[in-house]
Known about the structure:
The relative contact order is 0.25. The chain is 25% helix and 31% strand. It has 216 residues and is of the alpha+beta class. The longest helix has 16 residues, at 69-84. The chain starts with a strand and ends with a strand. A seven-stranded mixed beta sheet has the order 3-2-1-7-9-8-6. A two-stranded antiparallel ribbon has the order 4-5. It has helices spanning 69-84, 103-118, 135-141, 169-177, 180-186; strands spanning 5-18, 33-40, 45-52, 86-88, 91-93, 100-101, 153-163, 192-200, 203-212. α2 (103-118) crosses α3. β8 and β9 form a beta hairpin. Residues 1-5 and 18-29 have low confidence and may be disordered.
Amino acid sequence: xxxAWWVVGLVSAVLVGCGGGGAPDxxxxxxxxxxxxxxxGFYGVNFSYTTSASFTPLRAPLPGFAQSQAEREMLAAINAxxxxxxxxxxxxxxxxxxxxxxxxxxxAATQYGQELAASGRLELPHRSRVDNxxxxxxxxxxxxxxxxxxxxxxxxxxxxAAGEGFTDPAEVIAAWKGSPSHCRALFENIGNGAVxxxxxxxxxxxxxxxxGWENE
Length: 216
């Protein structure tokens, strides 16, 4: 069997702000909805969303988006890699904290993996061919809607991999580590993440979503 695989990864570092000026007051957590404005300079996309000031990351899968055993094993393998630190084409990275499963990010990863698999192609665009959305929009639309401090560097990272028989976590991670941008993303000091695996006629598709900001 001929093996072929592709890996693609892009990072959007965005500026965020809260409607009404600045981050919400910690003493006003229960005061109602907050509008968050997002400037995704990587894609030239600006958008906003409304959320609760008391939003917290979801540590369990959403209904209809169960986490498979293969996905659990991949996240565990990624966390083992992060615990060791690593040597990347772009430099040496220290050990990073564990990625904590986030259900909304898993939904976004699964839905995009399904779109890629349904295309029947091993091409891996980060901008959707179906609705033109970019990773930051997909993650927010899936329900990942925190209220970050004003003007922080908020990172949305999406790493993609696909190939025929591309099912071994160690093999996928090794492929990501061979790319400067993917390798750096594996050791990003961000705490929320999820990985989805979707199998299609063209092969196996992996989508890794990481989002948040340092010292969250």
